[in-house]
């Protein structure tokens, strides 16, 4: 298993399409007209490129009951978003700009209206699809009797698939190949941690036999990441450990937590390159966590100077705020609609957008960072100096969380300030940082 070379250079912009386009929160009636909303997203591709990103990571786009993670038809674009022609046009326009497209595959569970599940409920234990699910049939089952069935983490409207059933593996592989054949470049595998690794290994081996250049990243929140990648034949997993350490360390002025996470991150890089992020569709916005402290820029510097495949969640580049709440509709605040065009964005977000452009540009000029390693040179609660390096390159990052200026020691090789605000003394080795300041340094040019 070899991760495609193009992943070394990609920076993803992640979008939750149903929210982005202002779609209804529930599927329309069966005979309702298709709403062509995907062109709304197509209109933002130039904005993505201007920011410096090179990949569009889509949330669910397939027919579903409500939020997209309760899929009902894996071969149909959600009619709230459009149809096949709209999808094909989005992919065509993306590829014309050099943008890769990642799809969100919900293959651990389905919605109750998924046709094979409805067939099982209607026809009973003898249905051809009865073994696709973990159904407990009552003795003497009769049509119309609702059996018990396995679900996803207690959400009974999300029906768990039976991953021990070969027909399910064949189905998932076929869905993946169908949309890769229509131009997608890879898949994010939702709730991958809930699926047995041998299932992923069998499915991905099957799909790669026809699409060797496809990329597969699993959603894993905790656990033994390297073991999961190897056992499931994945390219990567979501680096939630680093996400937590970034915002928590900055919010609490405790760089020791981040330093420990970087040690773990180095061990992961011996096996795979994680998907790194400071925001996504499932978590409180990074600006809501950090903007009041003035430390939002530090989080961006970490995202773009640490090894990994970085992801920007739409709106984060504009400083959007949103709090995730554990209630019905608790994700709405972090999955907002976007205006018709970038011209309608508030000017308030422009400085942060420009910082994204600067840091993504720095990252793309030093693309070797993708699979590099880090070492910490100086560490305290409020100051951190670390190096990102591989066999022939180095970058140095210095951060100050204090509300006063400080002088920190940096390696002698750190000779030029590439980004941020910092002043090196004439002989090198000492860097003056302003209050809440940061700097990225490189060797002498």
Verbal overview:
The chain has 445 residues and is of the alpha/beta class. Helix content is 30%, strand content 22%. The strands form six sheets. It has an eight-stranded parallel beta sheet. It starts with 11 loop residues before the first strand and ends with a strand. The mean pLDDT is 96.
What is the structure about, briefly put?
With 445 residues, the chain is an alpha/beta fold. The protein contains 13 helices and 23 strands. 30% of the residues lie in helices and 22% in strands.
List the helices and strands and how they pair.
Elements: E1 12-15, H1 17-20, H2 38-42, H3 45-51, E2 55-58, E3 62-64, E4 71-77, H4 84-96, E5 100-105, E6 109-111, H5 115-123, E7 135-136, E8 148-149, E9 151-152, E10 155-160, H6 166-181, E11 186-189, H7 197-208, E12 215-218, H8 225-232, E13 236-237, H9 240-252, H10 255-269, E14 275-277, H11 286-290, H12 296-305, E15 309-313, H13 350-365, E16 373-379, E17 383-389, E18 394-400, E19 406-409, E20 416-420, E21 423-424, E22 430-433, E23 438-442
Parallel strand pairs: 1-2, 1-15, 2-5, 5-11, 11-12, 12-13, 14-15
Antiparallel strand pairs: 3-4, 6-10, 7-8, 9-10, 16-17, 17-18, 18-23, 19-22, 20-23, 21-22
